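Minutes, project huddle
Topic: does the predicted pose make sense with nicotinamide-adenine-dinucleotide bound?
PN asked that the exact inputs be recorded in the minutes so nobody has to dig through chat later. Recorded below.
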Amino acid sequence: MSKSKSILITGGAGFIGSHLVKKLIKDYPNYRIVNLDSLTYASNLKNLENCKSFPNYKFIKGDIRKLEFLQELFKSNNFDIVIHLAAESHVDNSINNPFQFISTNIQGTHNLLETARDLWGKNKKDKLFYHISTDEVFGSLAKGGKFSEKSNYDPRSPYSASKASSDHLVRAYYHTYGLPIVISNCSNNYGPAQHFEKLIPLMIKNIVDKKSLPVYGEGKNIRDWLYVEDHVEAIDLILHKGKIGETYLIGGDNEKRNIDLVFKLIKMTDSVLGRSEGFSKKLIHFIPDRPGHDYRYAIDDSKIKEELGWKPKMPFELGLDKTIRYYLGL
Ligand code: NAD
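Predicted holo structure (tokens), as shared on screen:
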């Protein structure tokens, strides 16, 4: 059995966090998992209903922007590990109102770093601060090339700038104070239990409701799609085998143009609903492009594949099918 550890997961009531909490409490009964989440609109505790019966799981409602609260929490729980996912995560919201992104993603991350540095002091053996970030910090790619761990930072939205800033702070705490850190930057996640504001759940919901399917620009922007459970497996591996001070990029090997993804969702959702092929195509509605809309993201994830033996397992169509059936309640 694995050695017992006390782990703080921030943002565990969000999309990726809820999948991670469920995996870790089940796979590691010896780990004591505290899920800290302020329960913003993006959270959903219903996704964690089954966790209540696990003796190694505890939920605490709290805000990472409150430094004193964090200090008390760390003192009373003696955390060995922090896995930091709490964030404002929706790019469109960051364009309309960046303030929350600055306070949660930058200030909140700094509060956690400072609390860990203070409480862990000189005794940093077996401690780890694991920061979850995004490929959006690297900016926009043209048709060729991929992001790697060596790519320069070039964030272009308030969201990606706030995540870039938090990555820099995490690395600065490693270099300046020797805080044991690791960072992973992943591509767009998809799967069950994501908030309806995000592209795939929004499209599925609107196809079901026969509502307009808004697509930015001409839908030519390209994203790489990573199934959330593949991501969570990568996090598990990095947590246990990642090298201190290192960064790992995680991708899904699924580059798709937004419009092609929407076509696929229409085809698959209409088929599950028993509608004729292409029924919902008429719902597509092109809207003015998002300001600063990055053209393409793509990930070279050879480092995590070669060094840690990870690879994404979920075939894209099967992942989409699971996602569609989840939102249809099937
Ligand atoms: P999410 O929006 O679904 O969940 C974020 C969670 O953080 C929510 O439960 C929310 O209540 C909580 N939270 C927000 N502000 C908080 C605060 N001040 N204090 C405590 N909790 C707070 O996000 P997600 O999609 O699960 O993303 C998780 C992490 O992964 C984020 O850091 C995000 O930047 C990163 N990420 C996500 C994706 C993706 O495609 N979803 C891709 C790359 C990186």
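Observations noted during the meeting:
- The mean pLDDT is 97.
- The longest strand covers residues 31-37.
No decisions taken; revisit at the next huddle.
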